[in-house]
Amino acid sequence: MFNWKEFDKAKEILGHMGGSRYRDSWGQHHLRVRPIDLLDWIKFLKEDLDYLTMTEIASLDHGAAAPFRFEIVYHLLNMGTHQRLNLHLIVDSGEKIPSVAEYYPHAEWMEREQAEMLDLNFERKQAPLILPVGQLNFPLRKDAQFKEWPVTEASKLPLLRFNPNKSEAPYPEESYQWKRFDLTSPETMGNFEWLVCFDPVKVVDSKVQIGFHHQGLELLLQNKDILQILQLADKVTLSAAPHYSVAWTKTIEDMYRIKIPERAQALRIVFLELSRIADHLTVLQSICFHADLGEYRFLLNAREKVYELFEKYSGFRHGLGIAKIGGVQDDLPPGWIIEYQTVAEVLSKKLNLIHKSLIGQEKFRKLLGGESVNAQSVLQGGVSGPAMRAAGLNFDLRKSQPFYFYQDIDFDIPVGIHGTGYDRYLIRLEEIFQSLRIITQVIDNLPLGKVVDEAFDQNYLELTAFFKRLETPKEWHYSALETPSGEGGFLVQLESQLKPSRIKIKTPSFVMAEALPIFVKGLREEQLKICLASLGLSRWEIDR
Amino acid sequence: MILNKKFYTKVSYFRTLWNQQQIKKLAGDKVFKAFKLFKTEWPDKVYFYSPRLKRVPKFTGDTKALSQWKDSKVCETLCPTQAIKVTASAFIIDDRGCIACGLCVELAPPGVLEMTTEPLLLHRS
Fold first, then answer.
1. Which residues of B are less than 8 Å from A415 in CB distance?
2. What pLDDT is stored for residue B42 in this prediction?
3. Cα distance from A200 to chain B (closest Cα, Å)?
4. What ipTM describes this predicted complex?
5. Could you tell me if A109 and A75 are in contact, meaning their C-beta atoms sit under 8 angstroms apart?
6. Cα A177 to the chain's mean position, in Å?
């Protein structure tokens, strides 16, 4: 639960320290910092105020005319009191920015991503993460040109960007071997390029190279309206489509302080949990498929029944087009609830059968097992979701920062011990039962009333006229949901009432890909693809 | 929070054999057979519930109503994928770009645009 007493205490301390540079809005602290003081502040915040993890870094270009050109936001999270802090850094072009990777090791990829998108000068300089080597054009700058794509050196994209030479490889022992897995090899499942070091049998170390699937979604969304983005926001991933569309509407509703009717809140919870079930079923299916077990067919068909439920509501199979600003698109069609009850009954009966037959097989247990993963190393990696809960950390956004009706609903959060793939499998399975429990409780007490607020039940032109009468919110705002594979959401700043100046999409898979060496250590070669499958990575979330 | 040791159950060898036999029977179950039906009978018969978005927007051909509609040019900028072109006598929707979000149909006066059940024609110029 959100702790307002602790919030006030931290507010006093930060207000005293920061003076006029401190501000609070909607339960989030905002603090402006100079680059010289940045590391001192972060050391103080991490060690004395318990801001143990950082969720996201985003940066904004104000244009050449502004007194300070760039603004960078570090979004910190307190694991004890679940409060969030936005650390604003104001930087001129070409000014040196200290690297935060000392205190938050998983910030390294985020810094590299921002550096190559906006030509920022971080102290720890490394090769670009996503874009080609030797580029001269920076896509998120205001003066970027998109007619050409000038590159100084010859493009090195088809080759591996780090070579397993003796100078680069940290293990000079002769028995250690580096193996390379392509985009096309089954071990990586089309996500990235992967270099893995074996001591000939078990994995010692690994390196990941991403940047093969360019969606350019952040850039694309920045040129659209708020209302148009709503139609595109659920295309971040198909497996968690309702989560991202609801996250987008929730950020806008938080910024403008809009209250949505109770029936819409309840329906949103129903579809969020349904999509969580569908995503977990795909993950369990891919585990079984890569382990050569025949049960994957039944899991696929079970997922198909969930997709049918989506289709009967909105017409799309993956749960697209559900949320709308001020509510949801439609009321439930007649007969939908009975359909759901039959599906829930079938799922809860037959999943138990499948689970028990899987557990009994020695092959399944051996392939999913491995060395245990330390909870502290997972926290250092910034991982969230089932992979984090499997390691023993008790953290779920539905419990820690409950929105809508989640605080009135009775449900549990499963927590593992060892953090292996086997634990991740068990947690995903238990979460399916828990979200069935949530949906039945919501549907039993479904509130009456309208599905959309009256002010928002209008067409596009009337809605734009409505928004232009409101005040534009000044500060950045971040709001997140618990998506099936971790914390996901949007970090938004608005230019005018309808146009955003910067949108940063927070996805769980990006951080998980960086933290892969933690999960892979000590596995054998045939276990690699099953470990990847149990993490539930999605390639559209990894790349930008 | 659920006690974590609850998950780690053991299943005996004979019990798993019995379970696997039960699972083989599931293949004959009607509930799990629906997957094949979907592919064969797309799109007319299966989608009996919601006619709302399984359909694609289409111009009815009523040029009079189109000429009387003042905001018809707005649709070009309104469409999130820029799939619409409006001329004096035609309202062209590119099927490759259309994501069936329904913004244009909401805005249009009755008689100009319709949601049709025709499948997408990907090769239309």
1. 1-2, 4
2. 46
3. 31
4. 0.77
5. no
6. 33
